[in-house]
Amino acid sequence: MADPLSPRTDLSLPPLGYGAANVGNLHRALTDDEAHAVLEAAWDAGIRSFDTAPHYGLGLSERRLGAFLATKPRDEFVLSTKVGRLLVANPGGQESLDLDNGFHVPQTVRREWDFSEAGIRRSLDESLERMGLDRVDLLYLHDPELADLERDLDSGIRALTALKSEGRIRATGLGSMSADALALGAASGGLDTLMVAGRLTLLEQPALADVVPACERTGTGIVTASVFNSGLLAHDAPSANPRYEYGDAPPEILERATRIADICRAHGVSLPAAALQYTLRIATVRSVVAGSSRPQQIRQNAEWMRAPIPDALWDDLARDDLIP
Question: Range of 157's domain?
Fold first, then answer.
């Protein structure tokens, strides 16, 4: 039995979850049938935790994921979505695509920032309507650092706490790439989990400085995302896809990834398998979320998560100062 996300909830997560940004047409457009095949591949691979957000494809990810999950027994999966961005009508937006945010969808709606309690309740209700489901298990505040962090974090935590006390959600969270936002969220003691995106990976671990210690103090669980560092660790040879964050990997980052890959190769371990499993070695980490738009990649992720990795690999990485 997996450990609960925190002492404040009974909700636990499996080691591997599916992040559904890709079925919102992130980076490339999918047909409804293609998106269904992606989600079916995740289910067939044994994945039972699914994460989405209104932000992903301006609601398309939620609609597709909800339609898929409506065909599955509700007690057999865990579902999370996010709040903080309302979707409001955008007259004339159908003539352009949301490519500035990476989504190949018409801009028939636009995002409106709202971390007020009323806005968060409205966001949850609208997400449930888009998904056609009656509940989500885990609700994350989504990127509160992009406006007024302290104000939005305070009002957001109060709203999530109220929804949890009313029984509308089972657990509360914060999802962000900002170490400052994550550390503040953990230190508050008012959240069950953090989704740490790209700040706790095999390649780099800035979250170990403040975020993880704050989670340890407050009993806050962690879900890691973007563990492949935007693709750099998704292949056995990092130079095959030197993409990092939102551009090409700087030489020093590529060199570090290559050194990690060399040690993995020496132990007969695939670099992506090590990247997927690494953060689960940290006591506060409960689950890893990975996304893809290709069924074969999802099946491969599930296999990598099950691959045996010798302790000697981690020892060698630590000896070379590549992990703590």
Answer: 16-230+271-313
**Sign of CA pseudo-dihedral 175, 299, 45, 40:** positive
The beta strands (E) that lie in the chain are given as 16-19, 49-51, 78-83, 85-89, 109-113, 138-142, 171-176, 193-197, 221-225, 243-244, 247-248, 285-290
pTM exceeds 0.70: yes
Q: How confident is the model at residue 1 (pLDDT cuts 50, 70, 90)?
A: low
Q: What is the pLDDT of residues 135-184, one digit of tens each?
A: 999 999 999 999 999 999 999 999 999 999 999 999 999 999 999 999 99
Count: domains in the chain = 1
| Three-state SS letters, 69-84 | HCCCCHHHCEEEEEEC
Contact 212, 179 (CB under 8 A): no
Name the active-site residue from 56, 140, 244, 278: 56
Active site residue 56: yes
Dihedral angle computed from the Cα positions of residues 277, 278, 281 and 286, in that order, rounded to the nearest 10 degrees = -60
CATH code, domain carrying 129: 3.20.20.100
Residue 10 lies in a domain: no
pLDDT digits (tens, 9 = 90+) for 17-48: 999 999 999 999 999 999 999 999 999 999 99
* 207 vs 190: CA distance, rounded Å: 19
Question: Is 125 within the bounds of a domain?
Answer: yes
The overall average pLDDT reported for the chain is 97
Structure confidence by residue, pLDDT tens digits, 222-281: 999 999 998 999 999 998 888 888 788 999 999 999 999 999 999 999 999 999 999 999
Question: Checking phi first, is residue 219 left (phi over 0); if not, alpha (psi -120 to 50) or beta?
Answer: left
Residue 247 belongs to some domain of the structure: no
Instruction: Confirm whether 106 is domain-assigned.
Output: yes
Contact criterion met (CB below 8 Å) for 187 and 157:
no
